[in-house]
Each structure stands twice: as C-alpha cells, then as structure tokens.
Amino acid sequence: MKYISTRGDQSPKHFCDILLEGLAPDGGLYLPERYPKVDDATLSRWRVVYHQQGYAELAFEILSLFIDDIPADDLRALCTKTYTAEVFGTGEIVPLRHLENGIWLEALSNGPTLAFKDMAMQLLGNLFEYELARRGEQLNILGATSGDTGSAAEYAMRGKKGVRVFMTSPAGRMSPFQQAQMFSLMDDNIFNIAVDGVFDDCQDMVKAVSNDLDFKRQYKIGTVNSINWARLLAQVVYYFAGYFQATENNSEKVSFTVPSGNFGNVCAGHVARMMGLPIARLVVATNENDVLDEFFKTGVYRVRASADTHETSSPSMDISKASNFERFIFDLLGRDGARVKTLFGDGLARDGKFDLSQHPAFNDARLRYGFDSGKSTHADRLATIKDTYVRHDMMIDTHTADGVKVAIEHLQVGVPMIVLETALPIKFAETIVEATGVVPDRPPKFVGIEDLPKRVTGMAAEVQAIKTYIAEKCA
Ligand SMILES: *Cc1c(COP(=O)(O)O)cnc(C)c1O
Q1: Residue 397 CA: which ligand 1 atom is closest?
Q2: Please, what's the b/e burial string for 69-103 (b: 16 or more CB within 10 A of its CB; e: otherwise)?
Q3: Which fold would CATH assign to domain 96-113+229-436?
Q4: Whole-number Å distance between alpha carbons of 418 and 404
Q5: Which of 317, 428, 431 has most ligand 1 atoms within 8 Å of CB, for mutation?
Q6: Tens-digit pLDDT profile for residues 200-258
Q7: Where are the chain's structural domains?
C-alpha cells in the first residue's frame, strides 16, 4: 500500500515513511492511494476474530491491509502489546452499552488518560519506538496542548526509547485533574513546560520552532498531531469492533454519531465505510464551534478566527478549523488534488472559506458518503447529562453528551445508532456537577493524583526560551 498527498503530490510513500512525518511536502495530508475493500467473507471472518481472539488481533488484520513495510510478526506483536485489558480496562477494549431506543455507547475512554485519544496514541507510541530503533534514530516531539492531546501523547511516549516529549501548555489554564495527570509523570523523557500565556501562545512557539528548519533538523523535532495518518488508521479498528458488537450478521447496518472537533475520529469512520463496513450514516456532532455542522448543512466551509472560537464545556471540540477535513474533501471531489490545493491552500488563506454548495458533488456528502450533522450547546449538554443520569443512572461526559443529543435527532427505525464515548465524566467534573449535582466516579488509579509531586518548568512565551531548553535537554 502506497500513500499520496491530498494536494496532488503523487510520489508514492510507504507507511513507515509517513509515520514520523506530519504534512506532505506540498502541504497536503497523506491518504492511502486506494481503500482496501473488505468482502463479506472477510467481514464474517473478522467478526469471529474479534469475538474469539480479541481486539488486538482484529487491529492486526485491519492494519495489515495498510502497512506493508513492517513484518507481520512484528506488527502483530505491536498490536498485542498495545491493546491489553490491563491498559484499556476490559477484554473487549471498546465495550458497547445500551442506552435506549437502539442507541448504544461505545466506550473508547478507559485508557490511561480517560479519553479516546489513547486508542490511537498508545499504538503510535509503540510504532514510534519500533521504527526509531529500526532506523537508529532519535525523535524529539514538540507539542502544544490545552488538555487531552498532550496527556495522551505523554502517556503513550513515557519511557519509550528514542523519544522525548516536550509539551507546552498555558500555565494555570488546564483543569487541576489534567495538570495532575501530566505534571505527575516522572519519566526522564517527558518534559512539561507551563507557558506564561494562552494556548495560542504555546501553539505559536511550537510553529516558530518547526519553521526554523535548521533547528528542526539539528534537534530532530517531530509532532504527534491529529493529522498523523497512523493515528487515524488506529481509529478505524473500533468502528469494526463496534459494528461486530451491535449486529449479528453482515446484512445489518449501523450508524455512528461522533463528537467531532478536528474531524479525525469521524474521518476514521469514513475510511471504515469506504472499506465496506455496512455503515448507514456517519453523524458529525459539534458543539457551539459548528464549522462542520455548517458545512454539511450549507456546503460552505468557513474557518473561524480565534476571537470567534468559543470556549465551551466540551473544550476538546473547540476548534476554529477542522484539520483532517481536507481528507474527506479530497474523496468528495473525486480525489482531485489540484482542486483541493486551490481550496485549502490559497482559497482559505485569502477568503477564510470556500463554498461547495453549487458543486455537483456536495449532495454526495450525504447521499453517497452517508454524512449528516447536528449541533449541541451548553444547555443541551447539561440537559442530556442530567437526563442520562436520572433516567439511566449513567454518567456521560460533556463531549459524549453532545453526541447523544445529536444522535437522538438522527435515529432511523431498525438501525442501531452507536455514539462514540470520547472521554470519561471525571475529566470534566465541574460541568457534570452543574448538570446533576453529583461528583462523577473516579477510577481508583486516579484517586489523589492532585496531591502527587509535580514536575513542570515555567517559561515565558518566547521562542528562544524553548529552543534553549530543548538544546540543554538534548545535550
Ligand atoms: C479530541 C477529542 C474530540 C474531537 O475529536 P476529533 O478527532 O478532533 O474530531 C472529542 N472529544 C474528546 C473528549 C476529545 O479529546
């Protein structure tokens, strides 16, 4: 399997070439040159694989179709090492539980940081360690986080050979729980940097360092952001696992509702559907930052300025633009890389938006690719959390609540609706208390983490400061 760029660069690359890379050289995102098709017999076989041999073996089967430059035994070992009951809490790894009226919740948030990003990041940590060892290379991951991504990256990379993580975050702006999660890590290869500023300052510092090509090369700076293809690929697996739990045979269809921000999670659903998984609809749920809902309703993709990006109670969906969206548009426009380059390159830079409402392909988003969308606000979130708690004695987090709210609006008779649970309520306790008056349960391993010793370096929001720091630690 070879990979190509969404902006037309056809020089084919293998999986491990793009594993450690971010964007393609032409500024596009990588996608496989075609989607492997899964026939009925294979789907039946995978159903048995998941139920009898488990999630790791299913992951190996799916990943094998996209990765041809890691020997099968090694790839299987990486999957087995990643997806364990010990790390993810249950043997099913992503168990389904029924809510009501054919609505199911698929649990993706029982990994080390209690959010779905662990599903992909844990695999990424093992893939990075493997590939860096094979090449005899080192990598210094530099990132900016306001919460979930940074902690998922640190818990995936901690103790891994060949990798260091430098993670910036805005000082004092993460929840006490999130700070405790990250800053209590004592591993030698993890460096927490609390920047005197807001998230955008952190992001700007990271960009400035990445744009200094000499520094980047000398210190082998890399990233683990959500456009990484390996992350997206890892997420494809749980769409299959969810389907096998909700159905008894392949003639049945299911729909998914996905709490969305950067469009990474639901894009994995799109890939699963393109492979032939019987998905009726992929429903994109947004919060007040409704860039994606607006596109699926009107055909206009309009990125927001920072000042127009709302801070909400489902903060991991607070996006101004959806970084993975370009992948779907590439497929929607019949893989016309030149057109995508115009839309996402100059077009967005000049106009801050593009309009496909008159394009013949726009209706395909719904009709051919199964997409639909909806939006949820703070009031909806509170009402949904409370209702789910009162009527079903089940606590859901704020992001998942956005999903449940939108899912209810898109039910079809006879089609199970699977809502992806993207975080556990304890991570967003304040809003849960606001909705229900009750403090959510805390998994035993997190009891008292706020009291653990912290390891974090304060820093001014200056590019030179972070460069000096990295150079010192790499000396
Ligand atoms: C990252 C995240 C999302 C959004 O996922 P995307 O892949 O960016 O669409 C939703 N919920 C939670 C809890 C997250 O951490």
Answers
A1: 13
A2: ebeeeebbbbbbbbbeeeebbeebbbbbeebeebb
A3: Rossmann fold (3.40.50)
A4: 9
A5: 317
A6: 889 889 989 988 989 999 999 988 888 899 999 999 999 999 999 999 999 999 999 99
A7: 96-113+229-436
